[in-house]
Design goal:
By secondary structure, this protein is an alpha/beta fold. The chain is built from nine helices and eleven strands. The chain has helices at residues 78-82, 96-102, 124-136, 155-160, 173-180, 185-196, 214-225, 250-253, 259-271; strands spanning 2-12, 20-25, 59-62, 65-68, 92-95, 112-116, 140-145, 163-167, 200-207, 235-240, 277-279. Its cofactor is [4Fe-4S] cluster.
Amino acid sequence: MKALVNRIIHTSVVDGPGNRDAIFLQGCNYTCSYCHNPETIHRCVHCGVCVPVCPTGALTMELDKVVWREEKCCKYDQCLAAHPNMASAKVREYSASEVMALLKNDLPFIRGITVSGGECSLQRDFLLELFTLAKEKKLTCLMDSNGSYDYTADAELMAVCDGVMLDVKAWDDGLHRKLTGMGSRMVIDNAVKLAKAGKLEEVRTVVVPGYLDSEQTVTEITRLLSPFLETGSIRYKIIAYRPFGVRQPFRSQLRVPTADELQHLEDIARRNGFTDIVLI
């Protein structure tokens, strides 16, 4: 079983508790307007648009396919900005054992791994194998997910997954569809089921004033999850939209929230019983 890996961050302190390695998989079933890494959404179609903008010749066209030579890459990412398909040619196909081999030197210094994307649940079988191998190394295993997969119906995966970091992008189904192309019902159901199972590591909401009703989202999701705070804290990350990496025309249309707007949302979450709140 192999998966397309967009990148691996060796040692991260923002992708779950403690020092962790973060593995970003390629491919997503959402097309969020504010996505700050839209190059992870689709797979490369080998159109070749990225090749002429590469300043070091790391990308070449060979037999109608784009070939990436990582050793030549300067990582300035002009190729990603030029790509019209929300994709990247700078990916590698790895088996789970190959990924674990890449993490080998990090093992003495990390608490666990977090798999993100794109949307990591689209490559579920790879996740199962990777987490099983990671557990053999005494690592904790987390998923950073948009919540479109019914996790609690997959007992086999949940047995090796320590928790899900769940994006709750919008409570309102219509707004969620406007943003992602899919409804919010599965996400909300996942939040409750994961909380009941003790597998909800944290909730995340990106605040985009004037585009999403973040006050409604924070109010409703914290009310819904408040009964589960008695058995343990659930972290809530309230994240300010930022334009970095966002594609046009959204980059110039969307507004960054003010500090007061973020504080107002934190106050709502605290009134509904949340204590572990991080503003980003």
